[in-house]
Design brief:
heterodimer, A: 69 residues, mainly alpha, two-stranded parallel sheet, 12% strand, flat, B: 508 residues, alpha/beta, Alpha-Beta Plaits, Rossmann fold, 5-stranded parallel beta sheet
Amino acid sequence: MSKLSSFFNKNVQVINIGIPSFAEDLTRQGVANIHVDWRPPAGGNRKIQALLEKINSWQEKVRAAKEGK
Amino acid sequence: MVVNHLIKKQTYFDSVTLMLTGTQIKKLDGVDNAVVGMCTDYNIDSLKRLDMYLPEFEELTPNDLIICVKADNNENADAAIKEVEKLLSSKKKPGTTNSELPPSSQEEAASRLPDSNMVLISVPGEYAAREAEKALNSNKHVMLFSDNVSIDEELKLKTIAAEKGLLVMGPDCGTAIINGVPLAFANSVRKGKIGLVAASGTGLQEVSSTIHRLGQGITQAIGVGGRDLSEKIGGKMTIMAAKALAEDPETRVIVLISKPPAETVLEKVFAELKNINKAIVVYFIGADPAIIESNGFVAAKNLEDAAIKAAELAGEDCLESEFSDSLIDSLAADVKLSGSDLRALYSGGTLCDEAQRILQPLLKEINSNTPVKGCNKMTDVYKSSGHCILDLGDDNFTRGKAHPMIDPGYRTERIHQEVADEKTGLIMFDVVLGYGSHMDMAGEMVASIEKARTGTGRSPVFAACICGTQDDPQGYDKQKAKLEEAGIFVFPTNVAMVKFAARCLERN
């Protein structure tokens, strides 16, 4: 049985990122959920966002290399 | 006229909350226009276009909130700004108590809800793929409501997901019902034996709601995003979801719905699914039914027919449409149109598409902002001429505004315009119910229709279809009663409404 078809028997628990009313609808239905108070990274500053992306990507490469060892 | 403003630095609200607040403010006394939004490039451009821009806005960032009001005097402008502040301060963050601050990141949310298995993402498109990738890397399924996600990003996400056996529903996926839970815009549909996979949001809502009203139910309604069956994506999620439904012991019948798929992808999908030992109903708009049937699948003629065929295969006795052709004929028999033209104002894109395809052989010349093959592209989408079938949820109408399923604002304005045109004989529209949708769309439409009738002294014929169920938060019967009390012909499916329109236009 595939991973997806076995998921069809489970309770859905949701992380909601974005429109708050989607989380409110889930709460009303008794579905476990948590809403993220999301805002644009780096205060919406695109230059800093690009730098953060680079740092994240380097960190991922370093992590992958360490795990490779 | 005066233009007053208030800037709230480092204050973030989602775009839907802000757009709906802006719509409410524009209705206040003396207010000519208002922009309530984060200082994104688009909102700054809007302020410039509306002649409401000031040099001090130069330094603002997308993390700053601006409330800018153009009004007839300072008193009304300031009152409107105060009203915005009041409305926004009443928006409590969901799922939190005073003693607990909400998580500010997906990682923090996951640590607080450790068994979370689905991430529902509706942040602006430029940030959405990153959040989706994080979710997949944490082995969670993704529903990607956000639009403006590039097809390259979609391919990357769906490739990761397919390798891990996870779902990526979207991008631009407005609706899904997973394990009985309606997500984003979805209807309250009973559990049953039919599993749906759809690359069309309103298509999925129309078929699942009709199945419910026919007495059957669903196991899953999996939205895969409108581009899943494109050449580039190759039906990755459609194939994976259909195969999973094939393994699911609760699912007896599978329904596949899509906007026109790429030809090579159609062959690939059919080759992958033809050995499934369950009945599969296929409604791929524009695909040749002979090809569908030669692969051993059941071809549906339209969305309503897909629901009827699936319900029959799931065990219902031989079914007919909720509205038979003879009933439609008898309703149309006494209708006199005061003008020659049809005007259709849809909030659901697939319903708009379906109407054009059904009416094209009869009307020959149809104009639309989203024309199907053989219909004409409108040069000015804001002014109707001839028979016009419009998708008001398309980008032309939703830039900087909430979707017409949430915000009736533009559609109610357009009603007035169409009623005032002496060529208009028949106006039809959809009312889409369910979670996420406006709580009283029928009431809003009736109010605007009555205002237009009084204001213009004209009364074209109105027809509406309701996509939804009695279990939806708005209640199907309540919405239907409101429309009928206003003298509007009401139909349970788009197909029935469009057939009624065809009969009326033929007879007049």
